[in-house]
Amino acid sequence: MTFSPELEKRFADLLTHYPEGRQKAALIPMLMYGQDEVGSVSPELMAEVAKRLSIKVIEVEEVLGYYSMLHRKPMGKFHIQVCTNVACMLVGGTELYDHACKKLGLTHLETQKGGNFSLEEVECIGACSWAPAIQVNYDFHHHVTPEKLDTILAGCK
Amino acid sequence: MSKLYNEPSPLEVKVVSKRFGLENSASIETYLATEGYLALKKAIGMTQEQIIDEVKASSLRGRGGAGFPTGMKWGFVPRQLDKPKYIVVNADESEPGTCKDRLLIEFDPHSLIEGILIGALAVGAEKGWVYIRGEYRYLIDIMDKAIAEAYARGFLGKNIAGSNLSFDLYTQTGAGAYECGEESALLESLEGKRGIPRIRPPFPAVSGAFQCPTILNNVETFCAVPPIIRDGGKAFADLGIPKAGGTRLVCIAGHVMKPGVYEVPLGFPMMKFINEVAGGLRPGRKLKAVIPGGSSCPILRGDECDLNMDYDSLAKAKSMLGSGGMVIMDDTTDMVKVALRIMRFYAHESCGWCIPCREGTTWLRKMLQRVTDGQGMTRDIDLIGDLAKNMLGRTFCPLGDAAALPTISIVEKFRDEFEAYVAKNPLAKNELVTVG
Amino acid sequence: MADQVTLTINGKQVTAPAGQLLIETCKAMAEIPAFCYYEGMSLQAACRMCLVEVEKFPKLQTACTLPVAEGMVVQTESEAVVKARKTTLEFLLSNHPLDCPVCDKGGECELQDMVFKYGAGESRFTEVKQHVPEKQWSPVVFYDGPRCILCYRCIRVCDEGMGVGALGLTNRGINSEITPSHGDHLECDECGACIDICPVGALTSGAYRYKTRPWEMEHTGTICTHCGDGCKTTLGTRGDEIVRANNRDRSGINEEFLCIKGRYAFDFNHHPERLQSPMIRLNGELQPVSWTEAIKAVAAKFTEVKSKGGSFGVIGSTRSANEENYLLQKFARQVLGTNNIDHPRSGDIVTLLDALSGKTDALATVDDIYHAKGVLVVGSDLSQQHPLLANQARANFRHHKAKVFTVTRGPVREDDIAAASVRATEGQEIAAVESLKDKLAATGGLVVLIGASVKGDDVRKLVALGDSLGVPVKYICLMDASNSRGAMDMGVTPDLSPGYKPVDKPGKTMMQMLADASLDVLWVTGENPLAGAELASKNAFLVVQDMFLTETAKRADVVLPSASGYEKNGTITNTCGQTQRLKKAVEMMGTKTDLAIMGLLARAMAANIGASNVDAVFEEIRSTIRGYNVPLPVLMTGGAAHTMPVNGRVPVAVQADLISSKGDTLFTSGTLGRYSKTLNSVMEAPGKLYGQPVSKS
Ligand SMILES: Cc1cc2nc3c(=O)[nH]c(=O)nc-3n(C[C@H](O)[C@H](O)[C@H](O)COP(=O)(O)O)c2cc1C
Ligand code: SF4
Ligand code: FES
C-alpha cells in the first residue's frame, strides 16, 4: 500500500517517537492518520500497518474494535458528530441530534448513499461550556442551533 | 487577539490562564515576552529535591480529577533506578463537563512544555508524550507547532537552555475512548494497545510508560508548575486554602447565563461562582442540581450548594471536586433523563474488562431507558440504586464507581421523579411483567 | 528459601512464602472462587470473583493479585464477600443465555458450579439479553459469544501456553468478544487448548459438540497414539465411541497440554473404513473370513515355510505396545527362527546410547526440558514434530528465561524464543553447533534434542562436544511415533535383541527384506512399508495386521484387523525413554490386539512363546530388559517411568541410511492421520516443516 508523501513522512516520524523495540506504540496514530487518508481502517490498511510495525493483524483488530473513532467502513465526506452528553443535552443537544437525523435522513453511524454525509451521536467532545456542540470531521462548532446546523450542512460541499 | 470562547470575569484570578486571549498567545514569541521559560531557567539551577519540595510547598493537587498531591507523586519516582524515566501528559480530557485542558493547549502550549521540562528536571526524565484525545486533532497541530518552536529555540532536544538537560517531547493521538483518561489505561493506549487499565501496584511512578518510571499528570497540573517555580510554592499555595493551593480552571455549563471556563482560587464559594462569575441562572429559574466536577461525581441538590469549591468541602457534602467540569441544572431539568444520559455514557465507555462494570453499566442503562420510556416498575427504582451500589468498590478501575456514584445520588435525591415516571406505567405495580 | 510470613485467614494462623498470591495461600484452607485467575498464567483481576476482605483495606481486595504480607488478616467468606460474589454472579448471568440443558458444558461448567454454591437469587434482570450468533472459527473451534464470560483464559493459554497467540479481544464494553487470528477464522495449531480451558460453554469443539452430556461419559486415562512425545490423554467414551479427549486433571507428563492430534485425532478410531473382519485372498480378491479360518491359513503357511527352511521377514510397528513388539521379536526369533525383523527407524538411539555408555542420568525427560537452563534443538522442527517437547521448551523460556538454541535446516517456531539460531543443511549440523559452543557453555546446563538427520558419527561428535562444555548435558533422541523408542528397546531390529544385545547372526533390514526377491513370507504388523515401495518377491506370502486397508494390506494374502492403541492395554515408551501405560478405553467389534493375534497364531502352530497376556509379557520385559524394572505403582497410577535400557557399549555398526523421519507435522500422523477427519478438515493441514508446506501424503 502506498500513501501520500506527507503521510509517509508522518509515519516515518512516528516510528522515531518511542523507545527502541516499542514501535507498536505507533499503532493507534498510524490507524488514525491512515484512516484520515484512506477513509476507513480497511483490511488493506490493517495489514499494511501490521506489516510496518511487525505485529500480527489480530493486534490491529484488537485496537480497531476498541476505539470508537476508528471505523471499518468509510464515513461520509462530512462526518457530522452531534454531542448529546449532559451539558449539551441540557441546552438542546438531543433536539439538535433529532434535527440532524431528520435533515440528513440518517441515524447513528449511518452514511448517506453517495457518501457525502454520515451522522454519529457522540459522547462528550469537550465543548461543554459552549454547548450544544458538534464536530464536522475534526472541526468544532459551538452554540449550535437547528438553524445554524442547517447553515453548516449547506456549507458542506 | 486570539478569539476567546467566553468573556473573562473580573472575579477570576488568572495564573494558568493569564495568556488566554493574548495576541498569538500560543507562539513562543508571546510566551517568551510574558515571563515564558523563566521558571525553567530557575529550575535548572535547582536540585531535584528542591524542585520537588517547591511543588510540595505549593500544595498543588492533580487537576485531572483524583486530586493527588503532585509533589508527592513526583517524589515516588525511584531516581536511582537504572532505567530511562518518562513524562506523560494526560490531555485525554473526556470527563463530561470538562473542557479546560483544550484551552490550555490552544492558548498556552508553551506553559505546558515548560511544566513538563521542570518535571523532567525533577525526576531525570528524558522523553515525554502529550496524549491528546483523538477528537482534539487541531490541538495536536498546535502542540506540534509549539514543540517545533521549542526545539528551534533550544528548549527541547539536547542541552536545553545550555544545561545538562536533554529532553524529547512528542504528541500522541488517542482514538476515542474515555477510559484512556484513566492513567494506566492511557499508558496501555500509548503503547499501542486497548485501553485496559493495569493491575496496580506497580504505579506509573515505578513502572509506567514502556515499563519505566513515569510521571503522569493532567495538562493543567503541568501548566501550574512554571508559576510555582517562578514565584515560589508558597505564593501559589497562598492563592488557595490550606492543603489545596492555587487556582484552578472551572468549566461551567448547563443552565447558566454565562457558561464558560473561568479560573478561580480553590475554596471559592460555589454559589458566588454560579451567580456572579457565570452570570446566574436564566431569569425566573431555580437551581435544582449541580454536577460539581464532571459527571463521575455524585450530584448535589440545589440546596446543598452553599459551600466552597475545595476538596474537603465537597467531600463533606459526599461529592467530589473532580475535574473542574461543573454542570448546572435548573428546575426545568428532568433528572431521570439526566441519570439515563449519564449511564448511557458509562455503558458506552466501559472498557468491558471486568464483570461488574461491563454488565452493571449495561443493565442500568437498559433499566433507566425502560423507566424513561414509561415502562418502569415500582421495584425498579430500588433495583437501580441497589445495582449501582453493587458495582461500587468492586470494579477493576474507578470507572465503575464513576458510573455508580452519580446514579446512586440521583436516585436518592430525586426519587420522586422516578416515581412519577413509574406512575405513568399502568402495570407498574404488577410484579410479574417481563419486558422484551 | 523465600522468607515466610504469618497471616490470619478466617481466624486461623497460616504461614506462607512472602509474596505468594493470597489466592494460592488460601487454597489449603478455603478455595477462593475465580474465573480469570489461572495458575501459571498472567494475572487479569477481571472477574472480581475472588474479592476478599482484608483488614486495613477500605475496599474488598482481589485475592488473585494480592501478595501475602506479614500480619495480614483476611476473611474469605464474610458477609460482604459472599454478597459481592453473589452480585457478581447476578451481573454475569444478566447476559448469559441460560441454555444449560443444551450446552456442552452443562454438568462441568464452572459458572454453574459457582451459581450452585453462592446462588444468584431470583433473577432481577428483565431486559432483553445481548445476542450475537454463534460463530465457527475452524472445523475444530466454535465460539458462542453470549455464553462467554470474558475470563481471557483462552487468549492467555493460546499466547502464553501454546506460544501461538491466535486469539485476541475486540470491541469494547458489553460488546467485547474474543476474536480469532484472521478476522472471521482461525489459523493456528488447532490444539483446542482454548476450548478445554474455557470455564463455560463459550468455546466448543467441532468434534464433541452436542454429542453427549458429560455425565453420560466414561473416562479412561491412556496415552496418545500419535507422535513420540507420549502425552497422557483422558478419553471420554460413550459405549464404544470415543467422544472426547483432554487432560484436565493435569496428570501425566504433559499436564494440560495436548495438540490437535491428542485432542481430536482419535476419530480415526471409528472411521467407517476400519477393518472389522479378517480377509483372505481367494481368486485374487480379498474375501472376508472368520478369525478361525484366517489364523489357520496363516499358521499353516508359517509352518509350511518353516519346515521347508524358507525365508521370513517380519516388520514390527512403531505404534504397537511394548508387549506386542517384544512378543513379535520373540515369535520371529524363537518360533520362526529368523533375525529378519525390523521396523521403520526414525532416530539413532543406538549410537546415542553407545556414546553415552558409562554415563548415568544422561538421558533427559520431558520435564527436564522445562527445567534446563538451556535447550538445544538440532535437526528438528520441534513445534511441528514434537509438540509437547516444544511446549516444554517454550514454557521454560517463559517461566525461567531458559536459553533456547536452534540448529535447523529452515526456520522453526523456536527461533522466536531462541538466544541463537543457526541454519544448517542436513548432515552439516555439527559444525553449526560448534559455532555456538561458547554460548552453550555459558548456559550452565543443557538438554540437547537430536533430530533424525543427526546420526552415526555425528551423534558421537555431538556427545563429545557436550562433554567439552563443562556443564551438565542431557540428551533426547527424537523419534517419530508413539512407540518408536519402545520398538528399538524391544529389539525389533535385525541386529539387536531386547535391551540392545547384539545377536549372533544379524538378519535382514526392512529395506533388504523388501528387496529380497526370494522372500517366502512377509509378516507386517501395523506398518505400511509398501506405501512408497515395491515388494521384490512376487511370490511372498504377505500377512498384514492393520486397522485399515493400507497399500500394504491391499497386497496381502491375509489381512488381520487389529485393535488401535486406544483399544488395548499395555505399555509404550516415549521418545525420552519414559514408559507409560496404555489403558483400553473402547473396543472395536471384529478386531483383535496384535498380542492376542500372536497368541492365537502360536497356539495354532503349537509353538511355545510363553504366556501371551499383557501382564505376563510385561513382567518378562521388566525382568529381562535393563531399565524396564520400573515400579509398577508408578505405571498403574498413570505415571511415567524413565528407562535407560543399556549402560554399556552397543557394539554394532549403525547403518545410517536406515534412519529417517517420516516428517509428520502437527497435522499429519502417518496412516492414522489419513483416516482422521479432523486432521484433514483443518485448513492448516497438511502443515509445514521448516517453513515449507509439506505435500499431502
Ligand atoms: C475513568 C477515568 C477517566 C479519567 N479521565 C481523565 C482525563 O480525561 N484527564 C485527566 O487528566 N485525568 C483523567 N483521569 C484521572 C487520571 O487517572 C489520573 O488520575 C490523572 O491524569 C493524574 O493526573 P493529576 O494528578 O495531574 O490529576 C481519569 C480517571 C478515571 C478513573
Ligand atoms: S471498571 Fe472494569 S470494565 Fe469498567 S472500565 Fe474499569 S476495568 Fe473496564
Ligand atoms: S480471579 Fe481475581 S479477579 Fe478473577
List its traits.
heterotrimer; A: 157 residues; alpha+beta; Arc Repressor Mutant, subunit A; Glutaredoxin; five-stranded mixed beta sheet; elongated; C: 697 residues; alpha/beta; Ubiquitin-like (UB roll); Alpha-Beta Plaits; Rossmann fold; 23 helices; 32 strands; 27% helix; globular; binds flavin mononucleotide; binds iron/sulfur cluster; binds FE2/S2 (inorganic) cluster
Give your account of this protein's structure:
The complex is a heterotrimer of chains A (157), B (436) and C (697). Chain A is of the alpha+beta class and 157 residues long. Chain A folds into two domains: 5-66, Orthogonal Bundle (Arc Repressor Mutant, subunit A), CATH 1.10.10; 78-154, Glutaredoxin (3-Layer(aba) Sandwich). Chain A is 44% helix and 13% strand. Chain A has a five-stranded mixed beta sheet with strand order 2-3-1-4-5, covered by helices on one side. In chain A, helix 1 (5-14) packs antiparallel against helix 2 (27-38), helix 2 packs antiparallel against helix 3 (43-53) and helix 3 (43-53) packs across helix 4. The longest helix of chain A is centred in the first third of the chain and has 12 residues, at 27-38. The relative contact order of chain A is 0.12. Chain B has 436 residues and is α/β, with parallel strands linked by helices. In chain B, 41% of the residues lie in helices and 12% in strands. In chain B, strands 6-5-11-8-9 form a five-stranded mixed beta sheet, with no helix packed on it. Chain B has a four-stranded parallel beta sheet with strand order 3-2-1-4, with helices on both faces. A two-stranded antiparallel ribbon of chain B has the order 7-10. In chain B, helix 2 (38-44) packs across helix 9 (219-231) and helix 14 (355-372) packs antiparallel against helix 15. The longest helix of chain B has 18 residues, at 355-372. Chain B is globular. The model of chain B has no long low-confidence stretch (mean pLDDT 96). With 697 residues, chain C is α/β, with parallel strands linked by helices. A seven-stranded mixed beta sheet of chain C has the order 15-14-27-26-25-16-17. In chain C, strands 2-1-5-3-4 form a five-stranded mixed beta sheet. In chain C, a hairpin with a 2-residue loop joins strand 12 (232-238) and strand 13 (241-246). The radius of gyration of chain C is 27 Å and the shape is globular. The chains are: A alpha+beta (157), B alpha/beta (436), C alpha/beta (697). Chains in contact: A-B, A-C, B-C. Chains A and B meet through helix 2, helix 4 and helix 5 of A and strand 3, strand 5, strand 11 and helix 13 of B. The complex binds flavin mononucleotide, iron/sulfur cluster and FE2/S2 (inorganic) cluster (FES).
